[in-house]
Amino acid sequence: MVVVGVQNIKFSYAKDEVLKRISFDVQEGKFVSIIGPNGSGKTTLLKNICRLLSPSEGQIEIRNRSLKQYKAKSLAKTIAVVHQGASSAFDFNVGEVVLMGRYPHLKRLESESMKDMTIAETAMHQTETFHLREKTLHSISGGERQRVMIARALAQEPELLLLDEPISHLDIKFQLEILKLCKSLNETKGLTILTTLHDINLASRFSDVIIMMKNGNIHMMGTPNEVVNAENIKAVYDVDVLVVEKPYPMIIPV
Predict the structure, then answer these.
(1) Labelling 220: which of 56, 96, 210, 235 has CA 20 to 30 A away?
(2) Angle at 202 between CA 17 and CA 94, to 5 degrees
């Protein structure tokens, strides 16, 4: 089943056309990564899908229903978003932050129930952040903070998890931990994941499908074996690479 359907969308910042009639589908239960150089439109595309931006032309559907038809709370029950470098202006403790993920499920002025508390605790256990629940968000590491934001997203009980550069500014240890966590959630919970990534090798390692963008267009979409090759890397990044084929396509710049 198609979870996200993007149909001929265009988007511009003033006169700068950033997305140029983009079309693709995301199938249920897939881990999909969007890659491409800076300025290729990755983040803008993700922001259109989560309705932070609105396309000037075309249509986006979530489960065969127009994105425009969703009310805010209904959309938040369906899509959870973890933004690049996500944090909070206020120094809440971790438990409070994760519990905020239950907001879409609450009626006006309604307090969290024991069920909400249990769901938030489960999300913390799934992301291995339960031991941090009494710590403030600003007192933990970047990798831990990103896990907390994913826990908050899980507390929403979404069908689709959108992540914008979830491993940016993290060292390689935390990059791997975050992506392993996302892949585990994808495989064990059947959670559909759509993420932007800069690292081609990590996208190749963890993704079922890769969308490779260039100048606001989709240059290629397919499995890592179909997308990650020397010809595509040269065409999109203007870099010559060697490709090691096993256990997954991995590039080495030359």
Answers:
(1) 56
(2) 90
